[in-house]
Structures are given as structure tokens and as C-alpha cells.
Amino acid sequence: MGVERIEPNNYKQGLLRIRHVTCAVLVFHPQCGHCIEMLPKWEAMKPMVNPRVKIVEVNGAGMHSSREMSNSPVGRGTEGFPSLLLFKKGKLVSKYDGERSPEKLADFVNQAVDPPLKRQKTRAKPARSKARPKAKGKTKKLRRKN
Questions:
Q1: In terms of DSSP bridges, do strands 54-59 and 22-28 run parallel, antiparallel, or are they unpaired?
Q2: Assigned superfamily of 3-110
Q3: FRET label pair with 29: which of 61, 65, 108, 127, CA 20 to 30 Å apart?
């Protein structure tokens, strides 16, 4: 789906664009040492991600000073920098708290995509006859009295 970059000046518009899709959101601070260390691993992860997942990078520099940013779903899900969050249709599904290798990050992001539906073999249903269905169990035959 591509990469969306959300900065403090386009935060509200960016959230509106991603609210109906499955997305992986990385919330980072440009001066955070952990974020700078994670950046090459994040870049290496991008080609491994399922194309149905939108990748979103949120610059959290104004996260704590802006009430709009801190009260949003992304702001409420962010406890520190960097934070990797999974959203489906605007709702927080999961937060990542694991090894920061490209493979592990990609596995986490790809789990958000629903597995493709398997086609099931359909059996032809037998045609119903118009006759009355047979009763189960023992039945008595009734004789007509003339």
C-alpha cells in the first residue's frame, strides 16, 4: 500500500486517511537514540511487509505538547519512543514489544492481515422429491375400513 509519513503539522489529515485500512504505525522522535538505532531495521522490514498493510510513520515530536495528538488513538497507544502499533479500521489491535530485528517486526506486522479465504469444495445437494418424507423409526400401517 505504500508509506504514509505523518508530521505534527498534518497529523489530523493523516489520521483521517488511515482510519479505514489495516496499518502498522511507527511512532518515533527524530532525536531519540532508540529510534535512530531502530531506523535501519525498520527500513529493512518494509519490503517484507504484506502489500495490504499500509506503513505509517508518525513523527511524535509534538505528541506530549499537542492535546490533539495525545488524545488520538495513536497518542493513547504510545507509551514511549519508538512504538510500533497495529491498527485495523482505526482501532488499536496490538502493540509490539519484542525483538527489534527486521524479520520479527515483519512477522508482527503481517499477522494483522487476515489470511486469505480458502475455497471450499461445494457438494451438489440432492434434489428433493415432492413426496412426503419418510418417518424415522417404526411406523404402523393404517388400513382403511370399508
A1: parallel
A2: Glutaredoxin (3.40.30.10)
A3: 108
Return the minimum-mean-pLDDT range out of 35-39, 76-80, 130-134.
130-134
Cell 499477522 belongs to: 111
Alpha helices in 61-119 (DSSP H): 67-70, 73-77, 102-110
Task: Provide the residue type at 66 as one letter.
Answer: S
**Average pLDDT, whole number, for the chain?**
80
Integer Cα distance of 55 and 1 in angstroms:
7
Cis bond upstream, residue 82 (ω within 30): yes
What distance lies between CA 142 and its chain's CA centroid? Answer: 64
Exposed, middle or buried, 108 (CB in 10 Å: 0-12/13-18/19+)?
buried
Rounded mean pLDDT, 9-25: 85
Q: Looking at the DSSP assignment, which residues form a beta bridge with residue 90?
A: none
d(CA 49, CA 18): 17
**Given pLDDT bands bounded at 50, 70 and 90, which one contains residue 119?**
very low
